Structure formats: structure tokens, C-alpha cells
UniProtKB/TrEMBL annotation:
Recorded family membership: Belongs to the YbaB/EbfC family.
Keywords recorded for this protein, A-Z: Coiled coil, Cytoplasm, DNA-binding
Protein's name in the database: Nucleoid-associated protein QQ008_08320
Subunit structure: Homodimer.
NCBIfam families xref list: DNA_YbaB_EbfC (TIGR00103)
Coiled coil stretches, renumbered: 4-31
Role, per record: Binds to DNA and alters its conformation. May be involved in regulation of gene expression, nucleoid organization and DNA protection.
One Pfam family, short name: YbaB_DNA_bd
SUPFAM superfamilies: YbaB-like (SSF82607)
Length: 110
């Protein structure tokens, strides 16, 4: 038989774990690179760009368009990795707490 009180307790515990994990994600970082590592973008698990490194060889006025493209590519790679990392960390933090109910999509929580 379905125990509603037990389920509510599990959801409250899951919410607490999600909050803790989201706070932890601020300190976790991933790096996206472009141009064979000449541009490196570092993002945290909250999908915020926290660092951008550009090789000195790229800082030339005539290469402005290429540099812009490399920055965009590196940043997008870092943000995609940050998104994947955040989803995985949140999934791990709620593993076993939230049941896998067919048709119930809890992806929006993460």
C-alpha cells in the first residue's frame, strides 16, 4: 500500500539534498577548450563562467573574429559540461529517494 507520509518525508529529504548539492556546485568547475587549448573557459556547476584564459599568440587585431569564435566555442563547451556535471551531481544526491514513476518527469527539479 502507498504510504503518503513516507513519500512526503522522502521528498523533503530529496529537497534538502538538492539544495546542498546546488550549493556544492558553486565550488565545482569544468573547463572547455577551443583552438587546441589556446582558449580555455572555466565554468562552475551553477553554469557561470568563472575564468577565461587566452593564449597571447591569439591577441592580434587581425585575428579578432577568430578569437571571438574560439571564445564562444570554449565557453559553450564549458557550460555544456557544467550542465552535465550539475545533472549528474543532483541525480547522485537524490538516488534512491525519488522513485522512478513511469510518466512522472522530475527533470525540471534539476
Amino acid at each position: 500500500m502507498f504510504d503518503m507520509m513516507k513519500m512526503m518525508g522522502k521528498l523533503k529529504e530529496a529537497q534538502e539534498r538538492i539544495k546542498e548539492t546546488q550549493e556544492k556546485l558553486a565550488d565545482m568547475t569544468v573547463v572547455g577548450e577551443a583552438g587546441a587549448g589556446m582558449v580555455k573557459a572555466t565554468a562552475n556547476g551553477q553554469k557561470r563562467l568563472v575564468s577565461l584564459e587566452i593564449d597571447n599568440d591569439l591577441i592580434k587585431p587581425e585575428d579578432k573574429d577568430m578569437l571571438r569564435d574560439l571564445i564562444i566555442a570554449a565557453t559553450n563547451k564549458a557550460l555544456e559540461e557544467a550542465d552535465n556535471m550539475a545533472k549528474e551531481e543532483l541525480r547522485k544526491s537524490t538516488d534512491g529517494l525519488i522513485p522512478n514513476i513511469p510518466g512522472m518527469n522530475l527533470g525540471g527539479l534539476f
